[in-house]
Design goal:
Oligomer: single chain
Number of helices: 21
Distance between the termini: 89 Å
Strand content: 5-15%
Strand order of the largest sheet: 7-6-8-2-9-10-5-11
Radius of gyration: 28 Å
Largest sheet: 8 strands, mixed
Length: about 575
């Protein structure tokens, strides 16, 4: 009997041990799911930040991305805190985890939309009401598979967090981000050195915690109201690439006489490919295509220098002739009393200025900036109201031309901004489309209606144009990114057409960017360009340079080939020249 009991007890112990082992394995698996959710979150963000290089094998680049994502395992620290028996520690752990997941979700979408990573302090409480106003528009364009996967990972993570203790073996994983940071430091140098290449690079090479630290340190280091000390004029942009660049001289395409009108139309999300495109056998932009071929100079190497201010950076560069800031939205945060704008220079020469935009969205800073600018008549349509943008553009241009003998009219059109489904049923019938079928087709159909707006605006000043008294400028703030692929230079490549009765359709390969509009407009009016202007007119000849806020500089080498390289310390003064006027309190 005793032997039987022993055997029964032995079987029970075996079954209990098996059940216990199975339960432990199940708990370890659930614990591993917590870790996997954290890692997957980092992997999704890194996949969005990563720019693939064609000449490097794809598996090598995916491997680098996968390894870099290990940085997110640093979130195991707040995970352990969230499972603490002390309430205060638990609350703090949950707060850090929730904030991290929300920020990664935001950043994944933000980078897809704007193409850069903003400083933490650039997203202060003052931006919140403005951001809420555009959330619907924003997420309609960028919400996709990455956002869905992030929501799934977050839901699973926060479901398991209070139900499953983290296995002690996960402590070992805490060493991986530390080791990875050490390897990055040895490979790339210090994060401070890398930061000049852009915040995205800092995150990829050193992880989000390093980015948080550097961003917070920058913010705390501003001892005054401005983010840079008073800075002397840094010189011309050409000096960052050429030791002794020759002075710019009038080009063969310079105007024979100054004009009395400059009409500049800046299209949101305008691709060079759209101008001469056909969709289902129908020309997409017939007016613009014909105008370009007949009477415009087409600048084939023209770039936007958009930074943390997004679309509004182009407005800032036109207004000031300066590069946008890589730290704060320049047009929103600049103290314009410290800067002589293009509107001030024109007013001093008897030329009136009108800026027209179809909304006042404060997130970009227009409502803050134009309230300070006394020498420009800024016209807006309130957001979220029914309006006919084409009629608004025509009315403001008509008023500008009637009110002065000499005038600069600058219209910023956002009709084409995604999701590119705002075109009429009539336009859909023209191309044989149904709205929402294919985004590229929707884009082209939208640009067809933009072309009609351009044609009507051009017609208002055509009499003066035909007499050689008006310069018509057509450009963009950035492309739609539907045709650019992964090439960062192509993602900054935008159309620029200078149209005048003296010109015939010609391509100009001069390197140029949005900061060159400032001297070009003054040059067209015959107004002396201030000596403290860093760029040169598109109507002048000579070497030119494009300096991007990411730290890349584009120039021509001794063989006349276009070269891109990382900029050295000599580029910093050009950004300080902007930052000295940017107030952290604005």
């Amino acid at each position: 009997m005793g032997l039987v009991c022993v055997q029964i007890l032995g079987h029970k112990k075996t079954r209990y041990a098996a059940r216990t082992k199975g339960a432990n394995l199940f708990n370890i698996a659930k614990s591993g799911l917590l870790v996997l959710c954290i890692y997957a979150t980092g992997l999704i963000l890194y996949a969005g930040l990563f720019e693939f290089i064609p000449i490097v094998p794809a598996w090598v680049q995916v491997g680098k991305m996968a390894v870099a994502s290990i940085y997110f395992l640093i979130l195991l620290i707040p995970l352990f805190m969230a499972q603490s028996r002390w309430l205060a520690v638990r609350v703090l752990g949950y707060a850090v985890l929730i904030a991290s997941f929300l920020y990664v979700f935001f950043l994944t979408s933000y980078y897809a939309y704007f193409g850069f990573v903003p400083e933490i302090y650039a997203l202060g409480a003052a931006n919140a009401p403005d951001m809420v106003g555009v959330l619907g528009h924003y997420f309609r364009q960028v919400f996709g598979l990455p956002e869905v996967l992030l929501l799934i990972a977050a839901a699973l993570f926060f479901y398991l967090l209070p139900r499953q203790k983290l296995h002690l073996g996960a402590n070992v994983l805490l060493m991986l981000p530390v080791a990875l940071f050490a390897v990055s430091f040895m490979t790339y140098g210090s994060p401070q050195d890398t930061k000049r290449l852009g915040n995205g690079t800092v995150i990829k090479r050193f992880g989000l915690p390093t980015f948080y630290y550097l961003s917070a340190r920058d913010w705390l280091s501003y001892s005054s109201g401005y983010i840079a000390a008073e800075t002397a004029f840094p010189g011309k942009l050409t000096q960052v690439a050429y030791a002794t660049p020759p002075e710019a001289s009038p080009s063969p395409f310079a105007l024979r006489a100054p004009v009395d009108r400059v009409v500049m139309v800046q299209i949101e999300s305008f691709d060079r490919e759209a101008i001469d495109a056909e969709l289902n056998g129908v020309t997409v932009m017939p007016f613009t295509s014909a105008l370009k071929a007949d009477t415009c100079l087409e600048y084939t190497n023209y770039y936007t220098v958009k930074s943390v201010g997004g679309s509004a950076d182009s407005e800032y560069s036109v207004a000031t002739g300066r590069l946008p800031s890589s730290k704060l939205q320049a047009i929103r945060s600049t103290d314009f009393s410290t800067i002589e704008t293009i509107y001030d220079v024109l007013a001093a020469n008897g030329i009136t200025s009108t800026f027209a935009h179809n909304n006042t969205i404060g997130f970009y800073g227009r409502n803050y900036a134009y309230a300070q600018l006394e020498n420009v008549d800024a016209q807006f349509v309130e957001p979220n109201t029914e309006n006919n943008e084409r009629q608004f553009a025509l009315e403001t241009l008509s008023d500008a031309m009637a009110g002065s003998e000499r005038s600069f009219y600058y219209f910023f059109n956002v009709q084409s901004h995604g999701p590119f489904r705002g075109y009429s049923a009539e336009t859909g019938d023209t191309f044989g489309l149904e709205t929402g079928s294919q985004i590229k087709e929707d884009y082209m159909a939208t640009m067809h209606e933009v072309d009609q707006t351009i044609a009507e605006m051009f017609a208002l000043q055509q009499a003066e144009f035909d007499a050689g008294n008006s310069l018509f400028i057509l450009t963009a703030d950035h492309p739609s990114y539907l045709h650019t692929g992964d090439d960062p230079l192509e993602a900054a490549h935008i159309p620029m057409l200078l149209c005048h009765a003296d010109f015939s359709g010609q391509k100009i390969d001069k390197l140029a960017s949005t900061v060159d509009v400032f001297p070009t407009v003054l040059d067209a009016f015959g107004v002396p360009v201030p000596e403290t202007t860093i760029s040169s007119s598109l109507l002048a000849d000579g070497p030119s340079v494009v300096l991007f806020p990411s730290g890349q500089v584009l120039y021509r080498d001794s063989t006349d080939a276009v070269v891109s390289r990382e900029c050295d310390a000599g580029c910093a003064p050009f950004f300080d020249y902007t930052n000295q006027a940017i107030s952290v309190s604005n």
